[in-house]
Write a structure and sequence with these properties.
Radius of gyration: 16 Å
Number of helices: 4
Number of domains: 1
CATH superfamily: Dihydrofolate Reductase, subunit A
CATH topology: Dihydrofolate Reductase, subunit A
CATH architecture: 3-Layer(aba) Sandwich
Length: about 180
């Protein structure tokens, strides 16, 4: 398969990507003015975003749709097209099959680089051995509970460390490839 799958995500130091109620307010507390931590460059290199229903619903609450230039695939068994369409302003498709089937259809449609976002989505790609790259930014805060980045995995997942960058505000961003 010539399609690549990457995850670009932040977590608290204790491994949570959101509070129990799904809020991510803690991500905004110690940012650096004008610094996006490499997100714009990463986002420019992908051509399709795959997110879960919960992440999709969180993003809908942002007001402005942040993915205007990209195709978005929402993984869901409960949504239907009528649940979120807004006159065609978003290129959003629903999918409920395996990650391998999804990647095959995306590759057939000409896509080459997938952005996997959301803890459950990232773990789904990992479980099927399909995540190529993980870019993880650890935020120096302990939440003590919340939604974990990594759920149950059936086996240990070994990573190759590629690089680490430390930002002046204490954020630590590491890039890994997976040994699958």
């Amino acid at each position: 398969m010539s399609i690549n799958v990457s995850a670009f995500i932040a977590s608290s130091l204790d491994g949570f990507i959101a509070r129990e109620d799904g809020t991510i307010d803690w991500l905004e507390e110690n940012t650096l003015p004008g610094e996006d931590f490499g997100y714009a460059n990463f986002f420019a290199g992908i051509d399709v975003l795959v997110i879960g229903r919960k992440t999709f619903e969180t993003v809908l609450g942002f007001g402005e749709w942040p993915y205007a230039s990209k195709k978005v695939v929402v993984l869901s068994h409960s949504l239907n097209n009528e649940s979120f369409l807004d006159g065609g302003k978003r290129e959003v498709k629903l999918f409920s099959g395996s990650m391998a089937d999804l990647l095959a259809s995306l590759e057939e449609a000409g896509h080459r680089h997938v952005y996997a976002d959301g803890g459950q989505v990232i773990c789904s790609f990992i479980r099927e051995g399909l995540l190529d790259e993980l870019i993880l930014t650890r935020i120096p805060v302990l939440l003590g509970g919340g939604i974990p980045l990594f759920g149950d995995l059936p086996v240990d997942v070994r990573l190759n460390h590629v690089s680490t960058k430390i930002y002046p505000n204490g954020y630590v961003q590491s890039r890994y490839t997976l040994k699958i």
